Amino acid sequence: MPSSRQYKVPRIFAGFLGWWDNRTPYAISCNLLPHCRVIYETSSVMERNNEFDPFADIYNRYWGADYHAQAFPIVERLLLSRLPAGSPILDVCCGSGQFTAMISRHGFQVAGIDASERMIRYAKENAPSVHFAVADARDFSLGKTFNGAYSVFESLNHIPSASELESAFSCIHGHLAPGGAFLFDLNREDAFLVYWNETNAIVDSGNVCVMQSEYDETTRVGTCKITAFELQDVWKRRDFTVRQTCHDPQAVSDALYKAGFSDLCLYDAADAGMTGDIAYARTFFVVKA
Ligand SMILES: C[S@@+](CC[C@H](N)C(=O)[O-])C[C@H]1O[C@@H](n2cnc3c(N)ncnc32)[C@H](O)[C@@H]1O
Predict the structure, then answer these.
(1) I want to staple 261 with a disulfide (CB 3.0 to 4.6 A). Which of 8, 94, 256, 271 is the partner?
(2) Sheet holding 282-288, edge to edge
(3) Residue of 61, 126, 155 to test ligand 1 pocket, by largest number of atoms within 8 Å of CB
(4) pTM of the model
(5) Quick one: pLDDT at residue 49?
(6) How confident is the model at residue 45 (pLDDT cuts 50, 70, 90)?
(7) Which residues line ligand 1 (CB under 6 A)?
(8) Domain count of the chain?
(9) Are residues 168 and 194 in the same domain?
């Protein structure tokens, strides 16, 4: 995952995790070191829209503070400033709700949806006054209209295809009042080529999380294999995968217009004021319903 660049890990360690993976049939425990008993949990093939469930604890604890702080002024300038104060706004793919909470603190009536039940559980803790629902961006109906909507932190790169992106855009369009605005950001291919071809880790006294990313230029899919150890009464291991698709900008634009949006404006994140790794090869899209 591009935003967790805490440690670069040599491939040999990542390779060791793979080796261990192959040799551990299911739920065994082993004594590697005194006080370091490891229980291995088998990974399961996840439905795509649930893929953040096993990642939610780590995401909620470590992810996004820098991105959210830098994205807020951009969302404020490009979206919030164009809406009446206190407007209803929809956070699409709201994740664990930290950004939703920031928007809510600025007086907007925010609602949030996310496909991951566990992410929504954290969102309810992080923004208790916000209404959250577990829903898939490609097919949802809240029975309510909003003046604005946003989907930040490259969430729509998690939608696998242009046709599914169009379904998501249609659902979002259907929830916006005429003239309402929608903002989202996507990683461009240069970001995949750099940040989805590395191995990173998070380490603290109770957690070790190794993320091995690989970008396939043919399929334009980035795959991040994550191995997480958490110290409970024993060390517990989980393995799971998170994927992003690098959407062709023309296909994104076509999908937006087919869904009924107009007046597309594009902003490069660095030009819009972001700095550092998170600004690299990221585009903010703003459209009108
Ligand atoms: C990178 S996180 C960003 C979360 C949040 N927007 C933030 O700024 O922290 C991507 C989120 O998109 C959600 N997601 C992925 N595919 C989805 C879908 N089809 N419908 C709804 N949510 C989805 C994931 O569950 C995850 O919470």
Answers:
(1) 256
(2) 131-134, 109-114, 88-92, 146-151, 176-187, 282-288, 262-268
(3) 155
(4) 0.86
(5) 73
(6) very low
(7) 49, 52, 64, 93-95, 98-99, 114-116, 119, 136-138, 152-153, 155, 158-159
(8) 2
(9) no
